[in-house]
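Re: weekly structure request thread

Next one in the queue (114 aa):
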Amino acid sequence: MARFIKGMPITLYERTQTGVDGFNQPIYTETPVVVENVLVGEPSTDDITNDLTMYGKHLAYTLAIPKGDAHDWTDVHVEFWGERFRTYGAPTQGIEDNIPLDWNKKVKVERYGG
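Done, posted below.
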């Protein structure tokens, strides 16, 4: 029996600037969008330690984003497994045609909230 790698749906909260506050800082609204076929990977102990040392972030998971996805994954909230996370750092991307599987971007997430 053949087994195939399959991602899961996650909710990405797209941000749209709706104004500015009294300190001239942007105010955003978030709109939930379901993104299908996202892989959720467990980071290594070295990756967790390095990100904590370099960025002050506690790496919870790494998400593999499907080819062709055009969403902005920089510093946004995501939800999966009933928990809320926040992406950090710029997503890394490979050349779509040179990667044999269905995913060509990676983004790091940290646990958000309680």
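The radius of gyration is 16 Å. The first strand starts at residue 8 and ends at 20.
Next request, please.
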